[in-house]
Amino acid sequence: MARGFAAALDECLAAMSAGESLEECLARYPQYAEELRTHLPLAQRLAMTPRHQPRAAVQEAAWQRFRSQADDMRLGRRPPLSFAWLRPLTIAAVLVLAVLGAAGGTAYASQDALPDSPLYRVKLFTEDARVWFTFDDSRKAELLLNQSNERTDEIMAMLRAGKPISGNVLGALRERNARA
């Protein structure tokens, strides 16, 4: 059925180009009359539309670029260095810097955190990281003793404020004393 309509459309277009009227074509194909009534005027208007011709200078410049690239490919020349890979690398670097900045800001904000603060675990983690990256045993012992003194100061501050002392503070104090 679709092929029949396409053939009828082609035949009517040819007949109308030769001077036949729309009504005569529709009378010849009554089974497709409704579809032909919408398609034929549109096809006629499209046929009358002038073909687009690109400007000669633009077309010549495009062909020149094409020939140049074809010559380069034939001769094995490499295209100029492309920095397309730089964008994903830049995005990744910015993301890494943002994460490191956020982590550093959180670590800095946790320096004065007391055991009842949500940042206290971050404070303990940063102190542990400092110990992990200290390779001199005497310096490591000194660092652990300083952290032990800080746990004692935190316990005293909590007692003065009338707050209960949580087990993680006492555990951190014992652990630092044992490691020192």
From TrEMBL:
Tell me, what's a Pfam family for it? Answer: DUF5667
Q: Which InterPro entries match?
A: DUF5667
Q: Which residues form the DUF5667 domain?
A: 113-164
Q: Give TM regions.
A: 84-109
Q: Which UniProt keywords apply?
A: Membrane, Transmembrane, Transmembrane helix
Q: What is this protein called?
A: DUF5667 domain-containing protein
Ranked from the top, the taxonomy reads: unclassified sequences, metagenomes, ecological metagenomes
